[in-house]
Structure formats: C-alpha cells, structure tokens
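Table 4 source record.
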Amino acid sequence: MSSPSRSRMTGIGRVLVVVYAIMALAATGRSFVQIVREFDEAPLAYTLSAVSAIVYILATLALIFAGSPRWYRIAWIAIVFELVGVVVVGTLSLVLPDLFAHPTVWSWFGLGYLFVPLVLPFLGLWWLMTHAPARVPSAVVS
C-alpha cells in the first residue's frame, strides 16, 4: 500500500516536480553567472532572475511535500507569486524594454525558456487544485 505522499508523486506530479527542479537549476545558474559577471549592467534584471530562482526552488520543494497542509499552502503562494511575476515582468519587458537592460528568466513571458515559465504556473495550480491534501474531519480535531 502506498502512502498519500508517494501516490501524489506519480505521473504528472512527478513530471511537474522535475520541470520545476530543472527551472530552479536553470534560473539559479543564470542568476549566479549574471550577478557575478555583470551585476552593475542590469541590477534589476539580474535580481529578478535570482528571485525567480528562489521561487522555483521553493515551488519544487513545496510540490514534493505538498501532502502536508503547510507545504500545500506554501506551494500555492510560490506558484501564484511565480504566475504574477511572469505576467508582470513579461508585460513590462514588452511595454518598457528599457527597464530591462538584459533579459530575465521571466522576460517576454519566458521566451528564452520556450515559454515554460508562462505555462508552468498554470499547470502547477491545476495540479494543486486536483491534488489537495486530505483534510482531517473537524470532529476528530475538536
């Protein structure tokens, strides 16, 4: 018999975690190189790349442990933040291109990453909605 957390990490759940982990590695590597080499050229863009890396790391961990109500809430917060970040940074990078001297992970809605940053939060939110952790009945809690 499999545990609830194990059954959550099969199929699309496992693929989603792997894609989030890949994005976490890519964004972390990108931001590290950008910050070390040329931070003074585009501090806003490179800081946003670092923020996206932190969000992807947090979302990866939260999805792995989303069987717990606490991690489930953290996953929701991280993925909603990610979606807002992609939409805001993507829009600003099109409307105010001078604001971003260099591209970020979320620039142009993730064009540099084949729009994965735009699609991923929608898949993550869908997965969270369809895989909510089991709730303890209130009669048991009181």
